[in-house]
Write a structure and sequence with these properties.
Helix content is 30%, strand content 24%. With 784 residues, it is an alpha+beta fold. The strands form 8 sheets. It has a 9-stranded antiparallel beta sheet with strand order 2-7-8-9-10-19-16-15-14, covered by helices on one side. It has a 7-stranded antiparallel beta sheet with strand order 3-4-5-6-11-18-17. A hairpin with a 4-residue loop joins strand 7 and strand 8. Helix 10 packs parallel to helix 21, helix 19 packs parallel to helix 21 and helix 20 packs antiparallel against helix 21. The chain is globular, with a radius of gyration of 27 Å.
Length: 784
């Protein structure tokens, strides 16, 4: 049922809204047992190997951490910008810390307890009974690229820490198809030579409590060749080689200790000890310049008291956790009416989805504030899997950025209010507009910009996709691969997402400097590339394809929906923020864009959304006919003609509830609460069989941890609690029967909505600003 906010406020309990207090932590589970909280992960046995790692991060630097049965901490460290000579995003290095010395006694090792609490960003472990316990806390400084390990013991111990250089010798690594480097193509598979890390001698460091190792890219074999092959070297603002002279490494420091050898520090005996690991990346003319930089970071970190740094880090994570949340719990009324097996399923579903949501959002924050967008295929938390050729650095589908995969974390970030995690994404992709305009002119002789599906963030297309034949020798200068030769919906989605970010933040500078220029460039391409049919007055959009699935199309639905959705959003902007010339262009393009294609399904007789006006050559398992639902929301539960989309969903060819598949999002937008419940429960339990951490999903279509699996889960969990369209805010639009929800989420016009629904009744609701209550519509499932 749907209730307007005006009638809701006449209810007796509405007087409590003005004084309602919200607390974003421990929402659904709470209690004295921290292990029940959606914000903690507690283990009572140590891990056997790297498949038992726990993730930490500060947005730029990340670590996979595991503690073994001998009281050793193992720390794999990565950064968003540690690109090696071959364009691979690799680990910076590793550190091993011995907490209890060389021969700990058995009673010092048990019992064991480890707890990650995402509300303070720290991993805390303890060995031994309380009266003789040794504990360690590992966290990453939120303001500095520094991993901190603090050790405290009931008795004095002699802890030690050792760097584990990552690249230990000049060896050869076989490049597999679509695995690693910049230059892989089926025609040109070759071995890559990985240079060894450099360990600085103790004499060179001139500090008895520090050891250091680094890797420097002395040459990059393929960057210029790729640019020449694709004709991008003629682009006047062609980016200088981003890999050459890039140097990355670790500086390990002890608060009180001395060298044991060139990779190991031994701490002075004591009840408290601290080790710090600086992870630094920079392109510098000389190694000495880089060495000065990393030493300065360590020196400056030491100026600020560790207590202040710890507090600043904890405050960041507390603010992040309280910025937004979504917590589900079982309705007591529903539990009372269900048989035992269904009761257990309801409890498990709400618990697991809530925890999965909180931990996935934490993973976004760990790696979302660096120099490059989040990598969908493992993020910064890859570890070795059986049969992979490159150990912890391996990721299926390689180092580049695939739009359809990269975008998904950022849809989730808008509704959670994590706009700081979106900055790099927009900076990197919007910066590609000029080179995409150049490519459209160079290859097709048209104005505007198209965004290829698969690019490195300097603008080059993957060589495996583009091919090795130089552009100037081709009649067809587009990429050789048909998988996404004309899959051009990415630019439209980027524009749509950028305008949506403005709608939520009301950041006028962002709108004028990024969103509108990007949208105009992309729209201009479609207006320039496709001719207008004289009979219909509409664009004749052929040749075309619909995603990777239909390779031979006329009037592809994703692009048509994208043009219509983007122009509608642009025309809805305040006139004072736009120009008359722009508005005239948007209106004219909207008028000549074809309607979203439909067809009558021969088997069912249903009229449905179609993948394109004409489509053939099916190659993949996407559902392009539902792109008008997500991402472009031209069809949703509150809009007319929803049956076209619902029918298309019913007869879709492919059914998936994992990875990047969007069935659950389609269900949520189309109002199918029970369908969403089933999909979400499946997705929330889709952790990799090899991994211990609960939201290390995959590999699914991609790799471990699969960021797309968690992204879709978070988008859908948010959609159960809140959806928005223009000014309208829908609360609990598809909340499954028997589910309670307690949430704080963001809506357009810089609005937050906080709400608690129990047993089908709204117990608390408030918006900031308060006047946005008038735009709220409560949608509740029947609980009778």
């Amino acid at each position: 049922m749907k209730i307007s906010i005006s009638s809701l406020l006449t209810a007796v309990w509405a007087v409590s809204l003005a004084v309602m207090t919200f607390n974003g932590t421990n929402r659904a589970f709470g209690g004295d047992d921290a292990s029940e909280s959606p914000y903690t992960v507690v283990w009572t046995t140590p891990s056997q190997n790297w498949n038992g790692t726990t993730p930490l991060g500060n947005g730029e630097v990340c670590a996979n951490v595991w503690f073994d049965a001998n009281a050793h901490a193992h720390i794999l460290i990565a950064r968003t910008d540690s690109w090696d000579d071959y364009g691979r995003l690799v680990k910076v290095g590793a550190v091993e810390i011995n907490l209890l010395g060389e021969e700990p006694k058995p009673e010092q090792l048990t019992p064991f307890r480890q707890e990650l609490d995402v509300r303070n960003g720290a991993l805390v472990v303890s060995y031994g009974e309380s009266h003789k316990q040794t504990s360690a806390s590992v966290w990453i400084d939120t303001n500095r690229p520094v991993v901190v390990v603090e050790i405290q013991g009931a008795n004095e111990v002699e802890a030690s820490a050792s760097l584990r250089p990552w690249r230990t010798g000049e060896g050869e690594t076989l490049v597999e198809p679509m695995v690693s480097d910049l230059w892989y193509t089926p025609e040109k598979t070759e071995r890559i030579v990985v240079k060894s890390d450099v360990v600085l001698s103790n004499d060179d460091l001139k500090a008895s409590n520090r050891v250091l190792c680094y890797h420097r890219n002395v040459k990059t074999k393929y960057y210029d060749e790729i640019a020449r092959t694709q004709g991008l070297d003629a682009f006047e603002n062609h980016q200088p080689d981003p890999y050459v002279n890039r140097t990355f490494g670790l500086l390990l420091c002890a608060d009180s200790g001395h060298w044991r050898d060139e990779t190991t520090l031994t701490g002075t005996k004591g009840k408290t000890r601290r080790f710090e690991i600086v992870a630094h990346v920079a392109q510098t003319e000389t190694v000495d310049e880089w060495l000065e930089q990393i030493a300065l970071i360590a020196d400056q970190a030491g100026v600020t008291p560790i207590e202040t740094r710890r507090q600043q880090t904890q405050e960041y994570w507390r603010e992040f956790t309280n910025r937004s949340w979504v917590c589900f719990s079982p309705s007591e009324k529903a539990l009372a009416e269900l048989p035992d097996d269904a009761k257990e399923a309801l409890i498990a579903d709400t618990r697991d989805v809530t925890k999965a949501y909180a931990l996935q959002r934490y993973l976004f924050a760990c790696q979302g504030r660096g120099a490059y967008p989040i990598k969908f295929n493992g993020g910064l938390f890859t570890v070795a899997q059986p049969g992979t050729p490159e150990g912890h650095d391996y990721r299926r589908w390689g180092p580049g950025y695939w739009w359809q995969n990269t975008r998904l974390p950022y849809y989730a970030s808008i509704t959670s209010g994590d706009f700081d995690l979106m900055t790099t994404f927009f900076e990197r992709y919007c910066a590609l507009v000029p080179i995409c305009e150049f490519r459209a002119k160079q290859y097709l002789g048209v104005e505007g910009a198209y965004f290829p599906e698969c690019v490195y963030l300097d603008g080059a297309v993957f060589p495996e996709t583009y091919g090795l034949q130089p552009w100037s020798e081709r009649q067809d200068k587009l990429q050789a691969s048909g998988w996404h030769k004309r899959e051009w919906v990415g630019g439209l989605e980027l524009a749509f997402l950028a305008i949506q970010a403005y709608e939520y933040t009301l950041d006028e500078a962002f709108l004028k400097q990024k969103a509108i220029p990007t949208a105009n460039a992309v729209l201009k391409f479609f207006d320039s590339y496709y001719q207008t049919d004289s009979a219909s007055g509409k664009l004749a959009m052929s040749p075309a394809q619909a995603l990777e699935t239909w390779w031979d199309c006329d009037n592809p639905t994703p692009e048509i929906a994208g043009i219509r959705a983007v122009t509608q959003k642009l025309l809805a902007l305040p006139k004072e923020l736009t120009t008359e010339e722009d508005r005239a262009f948007w209106q004219a393009l909207f008028a000549k864009t074809p309607e979203v294609p439909t067809r009558v399904d021969e088997k069912s007789g249903l009229k449905v959304l179609a993948a394109a006006g004409r489509f053939a050559q099916s190659r993949n398992v996407e559902t392009p006919e539902l792109y008008p639902v997500f991402p472009f929301r031209l069809y949703s539960f509150e809009k007319p003609e929803i049956e076209l989309a619902q029918n298309a969903y019913k007869i879709r060819l492919n059914h998936f509830s994992t990875g990047w598949a969007q069935d659950d999002i389609f269900c949520a937008y189309l109002g199918d609460g029970e369908g969403v419940r089933e999909h979400l429960a499946t997705r929330a339990r889709n952790g990799a069989k090899t991994e211990r951490f609960p939201v290390f999903w995959g590999p699914n279509f991609d790799w471990i941890p699969d960021m797309d699996n968690g992204s879709v889960l978070n988008i859908v969990a948010q959609s159960l609690a809140l959806q928005a369209d223009g000014k309208r805010i829908f609360v609990a639009p598809v909340l499954p029967k028997g589910w309670n929800v307690d949430f704080k989420l963001w809506a357009p016009q810089n609005t937050t909505v906080q709400c608690k629904i129990v047993d089908g009744h709204v117990e608390a609701l408030q918006t900031v600003p308060a006047q946005r209550l008038d735009d709220v519509e409560i949608c509740l499932p029947s609980v009778e």
